[in-house]
Design goal:
The chain has eleven helices and 16 strands. The protein is α/β, with parallel strands linked by helices. Strands 1, 2, 3, 4, 5, 14, 15 and 16 form an eight-stranded mixed β-sheet that branches. Helix 4 runs parallel beside helix 6. It starts with a strand and ends with a strand.
Amino acid sequence: MLIIKNATLYTMASLNNVNGSVLIDGTKIKEVSTSDLTKKYPSANVIDARGMILMPGIVDPHCHIGMMEQVYGWAGQDTNEITNPITPELKGIDSIKPHDESFKEALENGVTTVCTGPGSANIIGGTFTALKTKGKTTCDMVIKEEIAMKMALGENPKRCYKEKGPSTRMANASILREALTKAKLYKEALDAYNIDNSKPKPEYNHKWESLKRVFEGLPVKIHAHQADDIVTAVKIATEFNLDYTIEHATESYLIPEFIKEHNVKCILGPTLGEKSKYELKAKSFKSAKVLYDYNIPFAFMTDHPVITLDTTLAQTGLFVKAGLPYLEALKANTIYAAKLVKLDDVVGSIEDGKDADLVLYDKDPLSYDSQIKLVILSGNIEINKL
């Protein structure tokens, strides 16, 4: 057992900005207290974190780590299967390179959980996976092999398929509706056969077998930057009763009333960096403050390598500078992110029974000169600079 004592705790649960102790037993957090747990567990190993800040590990709810090794050019690019705009049968985990240097850099910068998967070239691209940021194989790293189905609207499918279609937003929406309808009809026919074997059994279809799961509870991530694309995404998701989040949500702050009315959950970012294409023209750090004011659920993402995972907190600081309350900003990288990808039962906060993914900072994590002194992943000390 290991106790970290005298830390300023930001648990992202009930205890924030208070002095306390955390007990780790194996891979899990066993107890969190504002008292000195060394008296209760005298045989535990102890780290005295006086003057330092202890947080849960960062959770990135949307990135492409392990799939886009830029330095290797085409050989390292395994993010977009630009051969068909509808590829729900693909699994992001099958493209992950566990030895991508970015995993090491992410861990060194306090990122302990990532949701990574296909890019946005395809209207339906395949499934995202949830991983810890260290392991020799994906079997060592995986939290959940398929965490969501990736869909995309806007510029990217238009650009990638402009020679053969889709080349308009109308076509994006139409092709998405067609695919969802086919998967729904396939599911209905299969369900009818399973209830009554006298009914015709549909011929196995690999695409629809995978996509039908969005009607069985598999969440959907819908890439949409512009306000009009967000509205289209919400309309289609509502039409088909999908469990979804809007990914990027760049212009969500321009239509907060619509977002609120339709109970939309947004994963914002990346907001750091240049406005590299037309649909990013209204990108603004004030977006998070607007969503916060409207009580709209949101989290932050990097879209790594669009901005790299080691810049997560640099981006977060700029959201605070634009008016987002400090604690809300930290939660958007931890517990809120975990909730929006349905991992909050295991990561995202320092609470009894959760994975012991912890990061110790020598000062305010959002300060430009803060240093990480300790990173613990699943109970193991991976970085130690004490």
